[in-house]
Design a protein that fits this description.
By secondary structure, the protein is of the alpha+beta class. Among the domains are: 68 residues, no CATH class; 69 residues, no CATH class. It contains 27 helices and eight strands. GO terms for molecular function: DNA binding; protein dimerization activity; zinc ion binding.
């Protein structure tokens, strides 16, 4: 076969199907020679663990092979774009896509970028960076005509430097970046035959009562935006036509509803309102705010989360950490001698800070909410978390039960809220099946599966293996898995039960039960939350604003496609980011916005353009799909 000519075959043994075994570490990889190359090169790639025993000269050789292959792909892209680029004189494509080594300096633009230094090395690199900036931040193309914009470019690039025109942005660069994103997506799609994928349906309703759905697709190798449609019954249509698809509510949405219900409990709500009185006073007086930052070492008191309820509990935790510093600030000679000290609001803040019952309540709220915030972080990072969501929710409930071991009334109040949301809105048979297949749960002697979990696991198997020939020996394979026989019982498999992701574990050690392995990898490779994609609520309103109605429908679709995928790519590259905390404080939140003599439309006026035609009545759903790459599901 042609593929046997690849020099990298000398570093592995070919096995059945699309599997290869590394000759250095003996690890079995699904995905063939392509995955082996990333395994040996030690280059970062989702779902591929770097080889720990490969020789350095082999790593360098494979890196060179990958680099040459990427350069060849870019040449192909350039040829395809040549016809489009002739519409914008002066733009010549010589962009090269680089795959940086772990030791190299990270590029300024982390996805689809040729800008590998702070100062672009050519006008083409500069135009590319500018184009990506426009698309990623949803800027109107007419901004390119702004005199101040041109002055800024000349200050950065020298006298006479000009960025891409509105026409070049719309025609040349939009199509170029769309083509490059599409090529990357095709590489990701190749892995679906093994891992399956999750379809994310981000649904919301605008003020014109239009039901709009943004479709994303997620798998272990990456997440991408597919398309946006104006529809309300797509989910039911998919379920009826594709029997291997499971429909469930977004985990982060369900957890947010639980936290929202917590905040509605009378004593919790009173505590939040008192704490907000302190932050409003501080954040509405510049001198006091600067003094607060001095006493907290530059740290913010208000923490803005991905939802209002998340912000409430994160900020209460923050205030609890800074309690002594806040008291020290209000009692300091510097503050006491200031004109703010004798104001009624200031005196009220000092009384609240001295209220020991308030702080006991804050400690209680922090203790009860933290287990759920931990689950929210686990499911919101964009990684496959379906195998752990069942156990995570169980642990969160146990934490609440343990905290209130001496107060049965409060314990029941909080757990009833959790159970109502979990059982009625979120729980899916797929979650039970994922828990059953998760080795860290299955082989944990402290875990005893309820009968309903095993029953739902079998229900999922019936749906995913509808034909008798697909279920051949499946009962025996389940037994081998449960009893840890064959490869399941090897030392490596035992050691990896709690250290490797469940999907990866099955891919490496599930060969003793091939039919069950195929199902397990597909189930355990799915995400169960849309929170990664919820920060762009106004993107469609802005792109569909009246200023852009003259653009044709295809261009609007391309803008949305490039915008979302640039945002997803840049977010995926940020290390150590807390997935539930926003970088900037929401200056219109209840923790900051002053409410004395409020103007009900004041903050709306500031953002009228962003809210044109939209609202905050949102509904998020996550559709977990287990299907083949040749299922034409997007032809709806």
């Amino acid at each position: 076969m042609v593929r046997e000519k690849d020099v990298c075959w000398e570093y592995c043994d070919k096995m059945d199907g699309n599997k290869v075994r590394c000759k250095f570490c003996l690890k079995v990889l699904n995905g063939g020679i392509s995955r082996l190359k990333f395994h040996l090169s030690r280059l970062p790639r989702k779902g591929v663990h770097p080889c720990t025993k490969v020789r350095d000269e082999v790593t360098d050789r494979v890196k060179a092979i990958i680099s040459m292959k990427e350069e060849g792909k870019e040449v192909s892209v350039v040829k395809k774009q040549r016809l489009v680029e002739t519409k914008s004189p002066g733009i010549v494509s010589n962009t090269k896509v680089h795959i940086p080594s772990p030791e190299s300096t990270p590029p300024v633009v982390k996805l689809l970028t040729g800008c590998t230094a702070i100062r672009p090395q050519s006008s083409l690199d500069a135009e590319r960076c500018i184009a990506e900036f426009f698309f990623e931040n949803k800027l109107d193309f007419s901004v390119a005509h702004s005199p101040s914009y041109q002055l800024m470019l000349e200050a950065l690039g020298g006298a006479g430097f000009r960025g891409p025109s509105p026409e070049a942005l719309r025609m040349t660069w939009l199509q170029k970046l769309k083509s490059e994103v599409t090529l990357q997506i095709k590489e990701i799609e190749k892995d679906w035959a093994t891992s399956g994928c999750t379809i994310i349906a981000d649904t919301w309703t605008d003020l014109k009562s239009r039901a709009l759905i943004n479709f994303f697709v997620s798998s272990p190798l990456g997440t991408f935006f597919h398309k946006s449609v104006d529809a309300s019954t797509v989910g039911n249509h998919i379920m009826q036509n594709y029997n291997t698809i499971f429909w469930s509510t977004c985990a982060s949405h369900c957890l947010n509803l639980i936290l929202e219900d917590f905040s509605k409990i009378d004593w919790v709500n009173r505590c939040i309102l008192q704490a907000q009185s302190i932050t409003r006073f501080i954040y509405n007086h510049t001198w006091v705010l600067d003094l607060m930052r001095k006493f907290t070492g530059g740290q913010q008191l208000v923490r803005s989360g991905i939802t209002r309820s998340t912000s409430n509990f994160l900020t209460l935790q923050s205030m609890l950490r800074h309690k002594s510093r806040l008291k020290h600030m209000f009692n300091s000679p510097e503050y006491s001698s200031s004109p703010y000290a004798n104001r009624p609001h200031s005196i009220s803040c000092m009384d609240i800070l001295d209220d020991s019952e308030l702080w006991r309540a804050v400690e209680e709220i922090a203790a009860v909410s933290e287990p759920l915030l931990k689950v929210l972080r686990d499911v919101s990072g964009g990684k496959p978390a379906i195998g752990s969501i069942y156990e995570s929710m169980t642990r969160a409930k146990e934490s609440i039960r343990t905290y209130y071991i001496m107060d049965e009334g409060k314990c029941k109040t909080f757990l009833d809220i959790v159970d109502r949301r979990w059982q009625n809105q979120f729980h899916s048979p797929l979650h039970a099946a994922a828990a059953y297949l998760n080795p860290s749960i299955q082989y944990n002697p402290e875990v005893k599966f309820l009968g309903i979990i095993k029953e739902q696991f079998l229900t999922v198997l019936d749906k995913l293996l509808p034909m008798p020939e697909l279920r051949h020996d499946i009962t025996e394979q389940i037994y081998i898995f449960r009893k840890a026989q064959g490869m399941f019982g090897s030392n490596l498999a035992r050691e990896a039960r709690n250290t490797t992701s469940p999907g990866m574990w099955w891919e490496q050690y599930g060969d003793s039960a091939p039919g069950l392995q195929r199902v397990a990898v597909r189930i355990l490779s799915q995400v169960c939350s849309t929170s990664t994609f919820e920060r762009n609520w106004s993107a469609i309103q802005q792109i569909h604003s009246e200023k852009r109605n003259r653009l044709d429908k295809e261009t609007l679709s391309d803008l949305l496609f490039v915008h979302y995928n640039l945002k997803l790519g840049s977010k995926g590259k940020v290390a150590d980011m807390d997935p539930i905390i926003l970088d900037d404080i929401d200056m219109t939140s209840d923790w900051v916005e002053e409410t004395e003599n409020p103007n009900p439309t004041q903050w709306l006026d500031r953002f009228s353009s962003a809210l044109d035609g939209g609202d905050l009545n949102t509904r998020q759903f996550s559709t977990t799909s287990i299907f083949n790459s040749n299922d034409h599901i997007f032809g709806l």
